[in-house]
Design goal:
The chain contains 5 helices and 3 strands. By secondary structure, the chain is an alpha+beta fold. A hairpin with a 4-residue loop joins strand 1 and strand 2. The structure holds zinc ion (ZN).
Length: about 160
């Protein structure tokens, strides 16, 4: 088990350095700012959907905070970019359940990929918000972006 947690720690460190998605997104369909006052982490996330409005075309974020919050945003961007919205909602639900597990059970690696590295973080109540920050921001973006695209695609529903 200690080998495994070492591996997870490395994955988190790796993502905190790579910061996939770091940078403001051009022409986002929705943006959302999320703050974790407990730790001081903050993130502004932008999402652009594809032409059909059902798939995440691009994610970009600007953030400042602890390595867990930044690594989590990076792992999330890697997982959610190119995914359809249904999949993204599954990812967010899966990640949220894992972060509420307090370290119990097993994480769903097939669904969550690198993000299972945060399973161990769920034991530390104070850090759960750090890991959840970007996921909550993305959830808000998806809700806003899909509401917007539903409205703009309304005329085509008559076909
Ligand atoms: Zn934090």
């Amino acid at each position: 088990m200690s080998d495994l947690s070492g591996l997870y720690q490395e994955l988190i460190l790796d993502h905190s350095r790579r910061r996939i998605g770091d940078g403001e997104l051009a022409d986002p369909h929705a943006t959302h700012h999320e703050l974790n006052p407990t730790c001081g982490d903050e993130i502004t996330m932008g999402v652009r959907l594809d032409a059909s409005g059902t798939r995440v075309e691009a994610i970009g974020w600007v953030g400042d905070g602890c390595s867990i919050s930044m690594a989590s945003a990076s792992a999330l961007t890697e997982l959610a970019t190119g995914a359809d919205l249904e999949r993204v909602r599954q990812l967010i639900d899966g990640f949220r359940s894992m972060m509420r597990s307090q370290g119990a059970g097993e994480a769903d690696e097939d669904l969550l990929g690198d993000a299972i590295a945060f399973h161990g973080v769920s034991k530390y109540v104070m850090r759960v918000k750090c890991a959840m920050l970007s996921w909550v921001a993305l959830e808000a973006c998806i809700a806003a972006a899909s509401a917007g695209s539903a409205a703009s695609s309304a005329p085509t529903t008559t076909t």
